[in-house]
UniProtKB/TrEMBL annotation:
Source organism: Streptomyces salinarius
Residue ranges, annotated region (Disordered): 643-678, 698-784
Protein name: Transposase
Acidic residues compositional bias, start-end: 760-784
Domain of life according to the entry: Bacteria
């Protein structure tokens, strides 16, 4: 600081003040940290940024006019959170520090009492402490001295004087091991009857002694447990006390919550980065496999970045029949994997769909997508292909199954469970269900049950209902035609925030930035979407659910090699080999040879008896009927005949007058698992049939007399029939092909002369005597 009185007036320096420095007049236009920006008044020089200490320490520095405390840096205030009154508090602390440091308050030319030139820094701190105490603020002189040192070290920035946010230590000074034990005991009591906190404290104490007594000793373990009042306080702060007061069902759901971060907003910038999936009742009745009404469920996969419906799956749903013992049916793991396969491939435009549902007629970048992926054609639906990277799923049994986890790991898809009974963890599928009910389901005139039982129409089960396959196609058409092309208020272009975009338009904006890479899966890769079954191959085949499967003729040699190899040499499997099958189409399975990474195609042994579509559920139903009649589930011939007779009876009987008859069963979605058959005539050139001529026949015996040479054939389209015969009649147009043998008879169909090479071949085949000494063999040859 300047030692002169004029230098001490630097404490009144502020933005807008006029100063003299280096024999020129300047105006303070900016103050950022320790840098002061000066603007010359004569306009002959550009603004200059100088250090505050260098400026006020100069010998010729003088404040000509101005006052008030220097303004605090707004960017520095943003780091601490801009709150109401934060700037005023920073300006007040800046004025106090300036007065303590210089003895002169900003904007004043006279020293206050206790801040004169003869006072020391400690005396000025004590005077400022007394002044603040009179104003009701308690701050000792030592604290002010510490604040001044921090203020000077930060370049006289007043932000460092503001009290920062204090992070509250969770659990206070209670040992973390005790807090962990408290959570374990409460989670252990989730499914039991409610208890008091005293019982929890006793169980925590027992758990600590059993876990740390040998390591720390009894005295040290006793010190881990806080006092009774502190224990009650920690239970209250951690929310464990409130959890104990909830019903048993709520406590069980809370205890099953996975220890992962939930809630909050994730920054999603590219398609497929985060997706959400969920399953819900569809409230639409459909026609089941037996022709009776059945309930349905809907499973969907929604992309968070652009709200696109990546895939949807409609499946039948029925409860378990307690009287007959018939098993229930709902969404299974195979349905989820088929949904994933649906998301990785374009949707085809089915016959009867609206032309506007095609991708070429939508806002998707169809030209760029077709250039990058050959699967995009004119018959592709207006729904983008999005490969999910992360799936937030519900904790239902299909989502946590081993098969779904295996498929996600194979496709390198991360998974994150949502909390139970917390729809806010996956809000997009929940909103999609409401949208589908409002804009699609209520327009399905046959089968819509309404939002509740009170609003359900009469005679819903007596209507001619749609099949599940028809509902699937109708829902896919609605998604491509309406949902993907309807503007969504939650989708905005960052460069055009005032424009509301549709899911397809938002995808077009994002894919232009992130790019698109096609990931087509081969039929061999698609087989890993199917269910896995461990089988033991034998000479007669292998069995799946008491059905015998045998290899097809093309793969019989490969299957024989597997039999000769014996064990699969897989850890824990010994003689078992991996097999993949689709329960919706169980007539064909694939045996996986992991040693050569190839597949052996196998068919059901009695496939020729079942001409109509059938599923594994139908087989199980007839097997239970056969067992109830006194048979065995292993009698596959009787079960197959029963299943075939059912289809024959269904085709022969007349349908009911008011209810539609049974239809082919629901067989899921079509998954390309068969290798495309190759045409053996694909590489051949087209043949002109008009140039085809009959080939001369070979002699029936090498001893037959040689025939006369055949005359040249008639030219095509020739009108000349040759000279007339002696009888006055014109000869037959084909008479030239049959030469006269001189006996006066009419033309006969004699064999044409064969090439010499052909005769030689025939002679060699017929005269090749395997045993020259065997006369009987020679006679047999000639007799033949």
């Amino acid at each position: 600081m300047a030692g002169s009185g004029e230098g001490r007036l630097a404490g009144s320096l502020s933005i807008g003040a006029r100063v003299r420095w280096q024999e020129r007049e300047w105006e303070v236009v900016a103050w950022q940290g320790s840098q002061v920006t000066l603007l010359p008044q004569d306009g002959e020089q550009a603004p200059r940024a100088v250090s505050y200490r260098w400026l006020v320490g100069a010998e010729d520095f003088t404040v000509l006019s101005g006052g008030g405390a220097p303004a605090a840096d707004s960017t520095a205030l943003d780091r601490w959170g801009r709150q109401e009154g934060r700037k005023e508090e920073a300006a007040l602390w800046q004025a106090r520090m300036v007065e303590i440091d210089t003895g002169l308050a900003p904007g004043r030319s006279e020293h206050a009492r206790g801040f004169g030139p003869e006072t020391t820094l400690a005396q000025r701190c004590a005077a400022m402490s007394a002044r603040m105490a009179a104003d009701g603020v308690r701050c000792s002189a030592h604290t002010l001295a510490d604040k001044r040192r921090k203020w000077k070290a930060a370049g006289e920035n007043p932000v460092v004087l503001l009290p920062g946010p204090r992070d509250k230590r969770p659990g206070g000074f209670t040992d973390p091991r005790c807090l962990t034990a408290m959570q374990e005991v409460v989670a252990r009591r989730a499914h039991a009857s409610d208890v008091t906190i005293d019982v929890i404290r006793e169980e925590v104490e027992d758990l600590l002694h059993s876990r740390y007594a040998e390591e720390l000793g009894s005295a040290a373990v006793a010190a881990l447990l806080p006092s009774r009042s502190t224990f009650y306080l920690r239970m209250k702060e951690s929310g464990l006390a409130d959890a104990l007061g909830q019903p048993t069902r709520a406590r069980a759901a809370l205890a099953s919550t996975p220890p992962l971060p939930h809630g909050g907003r994730e920054v999603v910038l590219r398609p497929g980065q985060v997706t959400q999936t969920d399953t819900t009742p569809l409230r639409i009745l459909a026609r089941g496999d037996d022709g009776r009404p059945t309930a349905t469920e809907l499973t969907t996969l929604i992309d968070v970045a652009n709200h696109s419906a990546c895939a949807l799956m409609i499946t039948p749903s029925r409860p378990r029949d307690a009287e007959s013992g018939r098993a229930g049916q709902a969404t299974r793991a195979i349905d989820l994997t088929l949904m994933l396969a649906q998301a990785l491939a374009p949707w085809p435009v089915m016959p009867g769909w609206d032309p506007l549902s095609a991708a070429a007629a939508s806002s998707l970048p169809f030209g760029a997508l077709r250039a990058a992926d050959e699967r995009f054609t004119e018959a592709t639906a207006a729904r983008p292909v999005i490969r999910p990277e992360l799936i937030i799923y519900d904790q239902g049994s299909p989502y946590v199954s081993e098969h779904f986890t295996e498929v996600c790991d194979r496709l390198r898809i991360a998974r994150r469970p949502a909390r139970k009974k917390t729809p806010t963890d996956k809000p997009l599928p929940e909103h999609f269900f409401v949208t589908l009910a409002h804009r699609f389901s209520q327009h399905v005139t046959h089968g819509w049950q309404g939002r509740s039982h009170k609003k359900r129409g009469r005679g819903i089960d007596r209507m001619p209902l749609y099949t599940i396959a028809e509902l699937q196609q109708m829902a896919q058409e609605w998604v491509a035609l309406e949902y993907q092309q309807t503007p969504d208020a939650g989708l905005r272009d960052p460069f055009r925030p005032g424009v509301v975009l549709s899911p397809n338009e938002m995808y077009a904006v994002q894919v232009a930035r992130s790019g698109y890479r096609a990931v087509p899966l081969s039929p061999a890769q698609n087989r890993f979407f199917l269910l896995r079954q461990w089988v033991i191959p034998g000479k007669g085949g292998f069995m799946i659910d008491y059905r015998t499967y045998q290899p097809i003729a093309q793969d019989a040699g490969h299957y024989r090699e597997i039999l000769l190899r014996g064990d699969s040499k897989l850890p824990g499997r010994e003689k078992q080999w991996e097999c993949r099958f689709n329960p919706y189409r169980p007539e064909r399975v694939w045996l996986y040879d992991h040693t050569a990474d190839t597949w052996v195609t196998c068919d059901f042994r009695l496939r020729h008896l079942l001409h109509d579509p059938w599923t594994a559920d139908m087989w199980q139903e007839h097997a239970e009927r056969h067992q109830a009649a006194g048979g065995s589930k292993q009698d596959e011939e009787a079960i197959a005949l029963s299943l075939a007779q059912r289809d024959r009876r269904r085709r022969s009987r007349r349908p009911p007058p008011k209810r539609t008859g049974a239809e082919p069963p629901f067989q899921g979605l079509e998954l390309e698992t068969e290798q495309p058959s190759q045409d053996p005539y694909a590489d051949l050139e087209e043949f002109d049939l008009s140039t085809l001529r009959p080939y001369p026949a070979l002699p029936i015996s090498p001893m037959a007399p040689p025939s006369a040479p055949a005359p040249p054939a008639l030219p095509v389209g020739s009108d000349d029939v040759g000279p007339t015969s002696d009888s006055g009649r014109a000869p037959h147009p084909l008479a030239a092909l049959f030469p006269d043998d001189g006996d006066g008879s009419g033309p006969q169909a004699l064999t044409a002369e064969a090439p010499a090479s052909a005769d030689e071949v025939v002679d060699a085949e017929l005269l090749d005597d395997p045993d020259p000494d065997d006369d009987e063999a020679e006679n047999d040859i000639w007799d033949a």
